[in-house]
Amino acid sequence: MDPRFDLFGNDVAGRFAQRFANAGQVITRSPLPASTQELVSLRASQINGCGWCVDMHTKEAAAAGETAVRLHLVATWRESTVFTEAERAALALAEEGSRLADAHPGVSDEAWARVREHYDDDQLAALICLVALINAANRLAVIVHQRGGSYEAGMLARMTG
After folding, report:
1. Do the domain assignments include residue 147?
2. pTM of the predicted model over 0.90
3. I need a labelling partner for 79 at 20 to 30 A (CA). Which of 10, 40, 73, 109 fits?
4. Could you tell me which residue ranges the Carboxymuconolactone decarboxylase-like domain spans (predicted)?
5. Crossing angle, helix 121-143 and helix 51-63, to 10 degrees?
6. How many domains are there within the chain?
């Protein structure tokens, strides 16, 4: 399956991508740990079936020093021992915030209480914005059939910078 449309080569999409990347920089520069950002982005992308984003976030996380074990186990984080309680809370929020169309009631009070235990207001704001942003990115890539496999760490920063 070839990509349907070149989001990176179109002027309108390129201008949007620049603003999208700028919004992402707010999150990147936030006090939310970078490893948590990548794990959340990876998990949401797995849920949404976005090969491009799974490829990107796996490679970016690995380049930043994330272990292969944790990257391989993020899809089964509930049955894994390698994630902190804070990361587990963030992954739960990401899952519930990504599955809104699956007849899910939204983010449960339990998931909300768990993230409040581990994150301050600025970190929580970044986490909420990240879940929204990665879900939007997943949809962009899935709609145009942007496939995973060719991404290289740092590529997106070079394309939008």
Report:
1. yes
2. yes
3. 109
4. 17-96
5. 130
6. 1
Contact 120, 33 (CB under 8 A): no
- Per-residue pLDDT reduced to its tens digit, 78-95: 999 999 999 999 999 999
pLDDT digits (tens, 9 = 90+) for 52-82: 999 999 999 999 999 999 999 999 999 999 9
Parent domain of 149: 11-160
Size of the chain, expressed as the number of residues it contains = 161
Query: Which residue type sits at 78?
Result: R
The helix/strand count (H/E) of the chain reads as 8, 0
Between the two ends of the chain, the Cα-to-Cα distance in Å is 28
Q: Give residues with Cβ within 8 angstroms of 32, minimum separation 6.
A: 119, 122, 123, 126, 127, 130
